[in-house]
UniProtKB/TrEMBL annotation:
Belongs to the ROK (NagC/XylR) family. InterPro entries: ATPase_NBD, ROK, ROK_cs. Transmembrane segments: none annotated. It comes from Streptomyces durmitorensis. This is ROK family protein. Pfam families: ROK.
Amino acid sequence: MHTDLVAALDIGGTKIAGALVDGRGRILLRAQRPTPAREDGDTVMRAVEEVLGELTRSPLWGGARAVGIGSAGPVDASAGTVSPVNVPGWRGYPLVERVRAATGGLPVELVGDGVAMTAAEHWQGAARGHDNALCMVVSTGVGGGLILGGKLHPGPTGNAGHIGHISVDLDGDPCPCGARGCVERIASGPNIARRAIEGGWRPGADGDMSAAAVAVAARAGDPVAVASFERAAKALAAGIAATATLVEIDIAVIGGGVAKAGSVLFDPLRRSLRDYATLSFVRHLTVGPALMGTDAGLVGAAAAALSQEAGAVDLRPAVGS
């Protein structure tokens, strides 16, 4: 029997995914349910319990030593609660306590989804081998996490590295968070599309008004689409450079749907980074795409649980990876 397993949960507004993950980051069993995001909190929790139920019924479950949770935020790891923006039934919801009860009292580690993605990219992905890294998810929102001194740095509440709400435009648009000119307000997928539409870009016959459609137009040379991605890249570069200046990261890894735009995003991002990361100790900073894809949340939640359990466990790469 495997004795080095952890259970992992990846909780978002669309799906609740669960897995049993071994000490090399291999997913041995999966379970998933749609998130009943419009329902009350207990209904959402029932979906979580159904996912956990599939895991606990497995013969492998006996080897599970802990549970890691990566959740859409805000999260509060110190209180064990979650308040995901896109799950209104959960506000200050005692998720850690409920998961502990559903798993027979196993230790539970909670982090935000950006921190989970960071743990995954450091363990198995694009930040592997880097002791100081910023990893970002750029999609409907913009989140992130930090690796400092070779270890995940979630911060007291599990939200450290939340780069989406660094202000990079002092007189910029109001952000739903309450501040102005946040990275997310400029660089998230919906805001890239919004800016392109405001600039006069129009979708094709399919009516697709997403950032992915703007990226297609930008690749074809549409100047408004190109400008929207260039502004997003500039906002990301400013946030990344500010982070590097504060804590001396040497790589920034970008995942999420917007990163799939490829060179349309990364070329202007690298150019802008030269303009913002100007001090001698941040000039070597590199930026690249994430590698972990849709499994990042599960693998990262597992990594967070393993790290916590061992204090500073050596998270070894999977054999052959």
